[in-house]
Amino acid sequence: MQSLAGKTALITGGGRGIGAAIARRLAGDGARVAITYGRSRDSAEALVSEIVASGGEALALRADNRDPQALEAAVEEVAVRHGTIDVLVNNAGIFHTGTIDELTLEDFDRTMDINVRAVFVASKAATRQMPDGGRVITIGSNLAPRVPWPGIGLYSMSKAALAGFTRGLARDLGGRRINVNVIHPGSTDTDMNPADGEMSDAQRGLMAIPRYSDPSDVAGMVAWLAGPEGRSVTGAEFTIDNGANA
Ligand SMILES: NC(=O)c1ccc[n+]([C@@H]2O[C@H](COP(=O)([O-])OP(=O)(O)OC[C@H]3O[C@@H](n4cnc5c(N)ncnc54)[C@H](OP(=O)(O)O)[C@@H]3O)[C@@H](O)[C@H]2O)c1
Known about the structure:
The protein has helices spanning 17-28, 41-53, 68-82, 105-129, 153-173, 200-204, 215-226; strands at residues 8-11, 32-37, 58-62, 87-90, 135-139, 179-185, 236-240. By secondary structure, the protein is of the alpha/beta class. It has one domain (8-240): NAD(P)-binding Rossmann-like Domain (Rossmann fold), CATH 3.40.50.720. The chain has a seven-stranded parallel beta sheet, with helices on both faces. Helix 5 links the parallel strand 5 (135-139) and strand 6. Helix 1 packs across helix 7 (215-226) and helix 4 packs parallel to helix 5. The mean pLDDT is 98. Bound molecules: NADP nicotinamide-adenine-dinucleotide phosphate (NAP).
């Protein structure tokens, strides 16, 4: 029996990178998956075809994280189609760097809209539909609790906000037996942070085990939190960073 058989999972930014790995994994564990995308329509639709070809159920919806109405409409559409949303994965995010003298208010607004406000919007809309036993899993960053270099303060602030929100949401929804957790990946090989990128050796230099994670490593942790064995874990932060923050 697949651990997520009969469940519906919505993953924001599921068209590529870590979000795509999460969608693949949850579909492999039996969930019907819905993914949102902002710009990556082709890769989102290719992923849906891949999941359907391997016997799963999947759906891609355009919803820019900067547009709360679009995000709420996507959540609503998934709930109408499937009758429920059992698992929400807040994954979509951007990594905008710059020191305080370089950053503008526009940079601040864009990062906070995509990385923070959209998590609030999607969590509020999805948990309205979520039955007892549901899960909210948010992708933070190991740069939330630690900032090893200049130029990461804005991103770090946005991801640190998610940890506080996770604890609060866990308290708000505990009475409905909904578990809420945040995963903090470290360097993970995606377009955002390629394992052969300019800063990759410096990142490996911080790690106890000097290697990048694969997106599927993060997806495995999501699957565990979404599945039956994660039922006693809520309001918690999980770091998966090869010991960079150790
Ligand atoms: N890779 C790492 O080393 C690392 C480490 C720690 C945390 N993270 C976090 O993990 C998550 C996924 O990152 P990734 O590495 O997979 O990055 P990625 O390869 O750059 O993918 C980013 C994802 O976010 C979506 N996204 C960005 N802006 C969006 C918007 N305005 N509206 C809707 N979707 C939007 C993208 O969708 P579209 O292309 O469709 O816009 C894409 O699916 C992010 O929250 C990131 O902060 C990554």
